[in-house]
Each structure stands twice: as C-alpha cells, then as structure tokens.
Design a protein that fits this description.
By secondary structure, the protein is mainly alpha-helical. The chain has helices at 2-8, 11-22, 29-35, 41-50, 55-58, 67-83, 89-102, 108-118, 129-167, 174-179, 182-191, 196-210. The two termini are 52 Å apart.
Amino acid sequence: MATALAARTDLQDLSKVVVASISSTTWTLNDAMALVDGIEVMPILARYERGLTPLKEVEPDPARPGRWSAGLGDDLSLLLTKVSPGIGTEQADAWIKVMVLALGDLPGRISREAARMALHRPMRFANEIEAVIRQIAAGLMAQHSIACARLRQMAAEQDRRRRGATDDPGPITNAQIRHMPPAYRSLGVTLGHLTQEQVDAALAEDVENKS
C-alpha cells in the first residue's frame, strides 16, 4: 500500500499521512511499519523535527518577519481584537511585535496552532493571552514529543530490519548441507531449519557428481 502511495505523492504528502498515523491513539509499531513499507522514515523524521525548531531560530531578525512570524502576528491580532476591541492601531501593532518576540521560544507551528485554539478560550484582558497560548502549547508539544519518539522508533526498526536482511546469508546450499556432520543435519531437520527433502537432494547430488 505504501509503495503505491509513494508513487503518486511527494515527501510532504507522505509526511502528512505518516504523521496522521503516529498521532493515532491506536498506533502500533507493526501497523506503522506496514504503512511505511518502501518509504524511508528518516527524511520524514528530519522534516518533522525541523518543524519543531523555535521560531526565534528559524526567523531570527524581528525587522524582517518571515511567514511564521507574520502568521503568528495575524493570529495574535485576532486575539487582541477579541479581548480589547477598542485598542488603537499603534498600540496594537506594538503589542503584537512584543508578543511575537515573547513567543519566539516556541516553534512557529506550535505557537500558531495554540493561538488559533486560544481564540475559543474565555479571556478578559490582553495580559492573559500569552499564558493561555503557552498552556495550550505545552499540550501540543507533549503530543509532538510522542510523535517524534514514535518516528524514531520506526526509523530504528527500519534500520534493524535492513541490517537483518543484509546479514541474511541466504538459503543453505547443497554443498553446505553435505559438509555438515550427520548429527547437525538431523538437528537442522528437527528444528525446522532444513527439510529431509533438502538433505536427501544434497546427498543424492553428491552421489551423482561422483558417478
């Protein structure tokens, strides 16, 4: 399923599908590994973790706000209008700039999501806004931490399976079977690593080679 998905989507779309799965309350490693069959997990993990970089590191220059800072400013403007509808434009602009800087320790995606969710929280004064945003952001960060841990677990499992496949010596050859002591061949059959048909075929081949 995942291979077909990869054929028609790019990494960003795949990230959304995988991230949606790792956020599920019914997540299991086996189901997750089936979803990413044929898809590299590490690039998705790297992309996800980059999205959790603090805003002040992604957009360090307040004089040149990037898309996250500008978007957060718009979200904060709505919140300020809700609690202080009569505030003047100059005062509002100054407050928004200060708040964008104050929330710079949070990832842009987190602060924006928290600000949008805060719009539905009851508040009376502008000085309550930051605390409400941070409270919501703490819950969001916890969810993202779990998601990152799951992605790292998936990446580790993918690497383990890849190394296991590399270390696989492949099927036992007739020559290897013939060189085994008889007791080893019998043990192999008993444990299911060999079949009696394999042993008989290997020994018969040896007889044919000598005749």
